[in-house]
Amino acid sequence: MQTKQNMTWLITGGAGFLGLHLCRFLIEQKQQVISYDIAAIPANEKIDGLIEVTADIRDGLAFKKALQGVDIVVHCAAALPLAKPEEINSVNAQGANLVLDCSKQAGVKRFIYIGTTAVYGMPKFHPIDEETPLDPMGYYGIAKAKAEEYLQQSQGIEWIIIRPKSFIGTGRLGIFQILFDWIEQGRKIPVFGSGDNRFQLLWVEDLVEAIYRAALYAPASNIYNIGAKEFNTVNIDVGALLEAAGTGSRLLHVPSKPLKFILRVLEMVHLSPVYRWVYDTADQDSFVSIQKAEKDFQYSPQFSNQKSLIETYQWYLKDGKKMSESIGTGHRVAWKQGILGIVKHLF
Q1: CA 68 to CA 64: how far, in whole Å?
Q2: Are 213 and 151 in contact (CB under 8 A)?
Q3: What is the arithmetic mean of pLDDT over 2-31?
């Protein structure tokens, strides 16, 4: 696969946050690119030269048709944790398996699966490497682990699994929109416990570069963790964001156990969009080793946690607030804050 010439890429979830960044990057690299997504790319974000197919990944006939002449599939499409459990399993596990089977039948050379570090659960030892036993958390983590299992058991296609940390950048809203909204209004930002835990993030363009390099240069049948190289504690990294914002917003340390209990109850009664994976890991160390990616395909992330947070916040003030008028469950829309929208006025 060590060539960049005459390659045709199909990106599932091409209209999503990661998908759009990846499609733009590949077009800039003079590649032939097909976006395959159930949603259309907004008119103001259309990409010259991009072939767009609007269909569900669970539509086998449509997907097989789109695969004609495709060399590499990057499977980014996924139902996110706020979706209903049956939707998460249908899209993230069964849908991924269908995409894989169709790709094999079409003679696709390489299949790049975008997984998640949620499959590790909450390991006690860090950094987490690719050999760490899996303990997937929640419906989302379980479905993504199941998809990985399908992939590792398959034959007849070269595959690579990418497990990225939470990635941010221009176009990212979702749970980060809630944080940015509170910061812009100068609210105190609740921090679980001491805030001395190290929590790794990832700049979306660094992830895009990793996907590209892995697709071309990584040995087949390998799994790679991807994250920022430079990151600190929650206190340091979020504190730097608050200082850069200059709104008077500051950290407020809250005991973890009661805060987690409250959020769990609010989640159960559908009054908060903050789900278990977020609040259970918020006071824990959470970072992966990227040494394998550095060694195998010279992965070299350019953005630190702080730079990623600050630049995403600056984008939010300039363009993201308009995008946040749309409410949904994806990364490119705002999440309905529920009771948190009231609670923030108390902070």
Answers
A1: 7
A2: no
A3: 91
- 191 pLDDT higher than 60: yes
Residue 264 burial (CB < 10 Å; 0-12/13-18/19+)? middle
- Please compute the mean of the pLDDT values over residues 225-240 and round it to a whole number: 98
Sheet holding 158-164, edge to edge: 51-54, 32-37, 8-12, 72-75, 110-114, 158-164, 222-226
Q: Does pLDDT of 346 surpass 90? A: no
Q: Helices (H) and strands (E) in the chain — how many of each?
A: 14, 11
What is the gyration radius of the CA atoms in the chain, in angstroms?
Answer: 20
- Domain borders along the chain are 8-168+201-226, 175-199+231-285+304-346
pLDDT surpasses 80 at 3: no
Nearest CA to 148 out of 172, 174, 113, 181 is that of 113
Written as six digits, the tokens of 336 are 């309905």
In this prediction the pTM is 0.96
Tokens 């998640």 identify what position? Answer: 116
Question: What angle (nearest 5°) sits at the alpha carbon of residue 117, between those of residues 234 and 334?
Answer: 65
Task: Check residue 6 and give its pLDDT.
Answer: 78
- Among left, alpha and beta (phi > 0; psi -120 to 50; other), residue 234 is alpha
Mean residue pLDDT of the chain comes to: 96
175: number of Cβ within 10 Å: 20
Q: In the CATH scheme, what is the homologous superfamily, with its name and number, of domain 8-168+201-226? A: NAD(P)-binding Rossmann-like Domain (3.40.50.720)
Segment 174-178 shows an average pLDDT of 96
d(CA 204, CA 286): 18
Q: For residue 226, which phi and psi values (nearest 5 degrees)?
A: -130, 130
Q: And the tokens for 10?
A: 């199909």
